[in-house]
# Entry
Amino acid sequence: MKSYVSVIRVSFFLVMILSLAALACSVSDSGSAAGDFMTALKGGDYAKAYGMCGADLQKELGSSQGLQKFIESGNFQPVSWNFTSTNVNNDRAEVSGEAVVGSDNRAMNISVILSNASGSWQVIGFNLTKK
# Structure
């Protein structure tokens, strides 16, 4: 009986370690996807940024040119950013922090919302708000 309890404890410990490792990878991957999206926008690679978007956001934007028009018309071209928070809940993540955007270098709050579709994180929304 005593060894059976030890096996259960070891099994529970291993499950917890593997779960925490999976969560850490998920948090890291979602943050990396958000950073890649911002890097594509900063570089003016709207086709790449658009390709990182989920189907619903792509439909809303219409095309990579629609994304470009949105970013340029609002003077929202990222200059720099610092993500300070990642919140993962099942297959959704919100990566948030601060960004400097536009030709006038405005400081703004930013959040990139992602969904894990088939093992890869896709951008399903992004918000910029005044600081």
In short: Strands lie at 78-89, 92-101, 106-117, 120-130.
